Amino acid sequence: RFCLSLVLASLPTMATGEEIPPALQDSWGEFWLFRFFVNAAGYASIVVPGFLLIRYFKKRNYLETGRGICFPVIKSCVYGSEVKSVHQEDGSLPPRAEPTESSTARQVFKLLFCAAGLQASYLTWGVLQERVMTRTYGATETDPGEKFKDSQFLVFMNRILAFTVAGLYCALTKQPRHGAPMYKYSFASLSNVLSSWCQYEALKYISFPTQVLAKASKVIPVMMMGKLVSRKSYEYWEYLTAALISVGVSMFLLSSAPNKHMSTVTTFSGVVLLAGYIVFDSFTSNWQDALFTYKMSPVQMMFGVNVFSCLFTVGSLLEQGALLESVGFMARHSEFTAHAVLLSVCSACGQLFIFYTINQFGAAVFTIIMTLRQAFAILLSCLIYGHTVTVVGGLGVAVVFMALFLRVYARSRMKKRSKKLPPGETPVQKV
């Protein structure tokens, strides 16, 4: 055990090739790779028994032989109704509601409301995310304060509120009859939890602008995952814009010099965590896309995924004893409590604004709003937290957002053209 401790303690320094801040050197137990495997072990303690139970019920043909008060619950979790709907063109979203004789002023007001809601929710979320993960709490003239270290607790806070909001929405509004086996949400939930954890953890090693640029480039692994998982094919302009995005991100990353402030240095650990975020998030979107072949609304998807996310995170936190420790941190620092709650509120409200915006104005308008949000997030982070961007880095940012807007324009043109296709012809799948 002593040798293992020494090896794990030396891994961060060996991996990055540079001095790690004292806050990240407290012990080998604080190294992100160790925590990742501990978290994964906690999720496995829930996934493995669940997998064995599902196999047991299917082997016994419980759908035909089962009965009793537990039968409806087991049927819903293991079998569902097994009735699928025709896969929609958007992949995951219901048809957009066309406005019925609505005035132009009313539509403009709705658009401004959606844009303001999305910008306020996600810009606030981004600023708070960086504040929580990179700054200390309780600092005084004599005490440097302490940092919050458990990213998994923040994931749990976000998911429990999203679960509550989605549950209330489903209870108060009419939803399609649910048909998917509940256990199928667990795959998207697990990858979603891991991607969120990587996203929070990466901020300990890289700057927020770097993270935003890397997230903007996730269309590349999404396309790769789409070809691998869903056997999708793509247009030439999709490959072109993906290449432009990778060039822009590379320009931004390579413009960071080692002698800059520590917050702007891209470390090896940060790159690995960002890669983990992108891979897990790409799987999540493709798996959810496949799940939408069942008749369900986006809010039902939000509810189902967050049920398992809450189960995974609270189970892992309890097994590690980290839940009480995080609650104790909240009790010691009321400022952190306010930040964590507001972070969760922004995340949950942002998801509802996403569904409403796409339903009212379509995916193209939504993508434009969110692309502008990413640009504003970089600007806001630089202004508040003092990040510096070189001329080459600024050009890289411009290339990325130019490619993103080009994707939006090309996709809207393709959708207009696909509406004119003869019956029986289907357009190429898009991401």
Question: How would you characterize the overall build of this protein?
Answer:
- With 431 residues, the protein is mainly alpha-helical.
- The chain folds into 2 domains: 51 residues; 303 residues, no CATH class.
- It has 16 helices and no strands.
- Helix 6 packs across helix 7 and helix 10 runs antiparallel to helix 16.
- The longest helix has 31 residues.
- The N terminus and C terminus are likely disordered.
- One of its GO terms (cellular component) is endoplasmic reticulum membrane.
- It holds the Pfam family UAA.
- It comes from Pterocles burchelli.
- Keywords: Membrane, Signal, Transmembrane, Transmembrane helix, Transport.
- InterPro entries: EmrE-like (IPR037185), SCL35B1-4/HUT1 (IPR013657).
State the helix count.
16
Mean pLDDT: 79
Percentage beta strand: under 5%
Terminal residue distance: 47 Å
Query: What structural category do the secondary elements indicate?
Result: mainly alpha
Question: Helicity, in percent?
Answer: over 70%
Oligomer: single chain
Number of strands: 0
Q: State Rg.
A: 23 Å
Shape: globular
Number of domains: 2
- Specify the biggest β-sheet: none
Low-confidence stretches: 1-26, 86-101, 257-265, 424-431
Elements, N to C (H/E): HHHHHHHHHHHHHHHH
